[in-house]
Amino acid sequence: MVEDKDRPGFFKDYHRAVRKAISNDQFNEFSKLKTNDDRIRFCFSLPAIHDIDIKPYFRGKSEKEALEKKEAGNKCFGRKNNLEALRLYSQAVVKAPVPSGKYWKLIKESADPKKMTMYAICLANRSAALYHLREYHYCVKDIDEALEHHYPKELKYKLYKRKARLLSHMKQHVEARDAYRQALKWLDWAKMEREKRIEHQTDIQKWLKMYETGKVVKNWDIPECYIEHPPVIPELTGGRNERFLSASKKIDIHYDNNMGRYAVASEDIEPGDVLVTEQPFASVLNREEFGSHCQKCFKTTKAPIPCKKCSSVLFCSVECRQSSYFHTIECPILDLLVGSGMSINCFLALRLVTQKPVSYFLDMKEKLNEEDLKEITNNKEVYDPSDFMRLYNLVCHSQFRTAEDLFHRCVMIVFLIKALKKTKYFDGKGSSSGECAVRSLLSLVLLSHCFGFSSLKEWFDTRLEYNFRRYPGHQKK
Ligand SMILES: [Zn+2]
Ligand SMILES: [Zn+2]
User: Fold this and answer.
1) Are 344 and 466 in contact (CB under 8 A)?
2) Domain 63-219 superfamily per CATH
3) How deeply is 330 buried, as exposed, middle or buried, from its count of CB atoms within 10 A (0-12, 13-18, 19+)?
4) Tens digits of per-residue pLDDT, 225-263?
5) Which ligand has the shortest distance to the CA of 58?
6) Which listed ligand is nearest to 316 at the C-alpha?
7) CA dist., res. 118 & res. 116, Å (int)
8) InterPro entries per the record (predicted)?
9) Are 309 and 329 spatial neighbours (Cβ–Cβ below 8 Å)?
10) 184-220 tens-digit pLDDT
11) Ligand 2: distance of its center to the CA of 341 in Å?
């Protein structure tokens, strides 16, 4: 496994500078510390660790690049090269400024309609390529997103007409009829010759007449070829284990002091049996896949939806973007973190924090301070896979790590907390004692998990997501 110190990026220089700045006596003092909390406090007290200027750093939007990609996409679309047009329009969609939040206010004041409508126009153009590629599911999503983001009103009739046509292909006749009604309404705003307008009106009315005078309009089942199915989680073979809800009845989990926690077969296991399935506590996408896969669900993105602020990440849908709280925190520092060269283990540790608001950890503070974390393997309690304490209970292996290794990890944690402080994560927790408590708690969580992740990642190194509740190790004692 590649350690942080062997990776490219500025973190290794930062760590080296902090390490060099402390005396042998100070380092000896560090090596004698017994708890994670004490180690982190020690590192925070070092003057050299604050000799780093951490600033938000992320790849933003570029109207110029969006325009270039859109025009290149238009050329391909004109030549009926829809696949290449889709690729170029997607790049334009990702780069186009999204009129929302502060940015929206800014451009509203400067009243530049081109900037305001760029994102929506790129989406609308992409929807045309998707329509010809018969990717109706994505086409309708792009049209809705464009209509929600200031698509020019004089062109709206066109989008509604496209939407009506594809909904009728999808046998969604109620929505198709409504879209034709909208198309007719927005035709009044269109800038065109009278004859052309009448032509459009006649066409739309022909369809509306069919819907309104024909047999009862209803939605039929969407044809299978137009449905995007979510990934299928395989069924557990032999039924669900009564105590370990994520495991099959075919295995049981035991614990003893020599072996730690381990699985035993309760009955014969055949090749291909599914023994454990579970939602991961936290998961991160490999950096190499940032340009092709959804940050939230890891699906490949046929028609990517961008973050509203940066152009570093993609989502497969507006729904995935909306449910990615973690990215609203990580967004302003993402490229800083990538540039640091930190490992995927550290990203995973950070994600555990950024996927929940700080209030979640404040509420857990009492629980985390309990000295005797419950041993659940040998008692009869049901193992709740969504309980954060199960994760916290994973073994840290800190007793097997050298002082140098511990120090390196602690510096990483200080760096992560400093980076987090440049985001809105701690907003609203302004009182210094409150913030200190939260920082100390997060340090503890991050440090424990950095350890836990390293040992687990060695088990599941080929996966894009790492599940921490597969019972592979001992429990912390
Ligand atoms: Zn997704
Ligand atoms: Zn972002």
Assistant:
1) no
2) Tetratricopeptide repeat domain (1.25.40.10)
3) buried
4) 667 777 777 899 999 988 888 899 999 888 777 877 788
5) 2
6) 1
7) 6
8) SET-MYND_domain_protein (IPR052097), SET_dom_sf (IPR046341), TPR-like_helical_dom_sf (IPR011990), Znf_MYND (IPR002893)
9) no
10) 999 999 998 899 999 999 999 998 888 877 665 667 7
11) 19
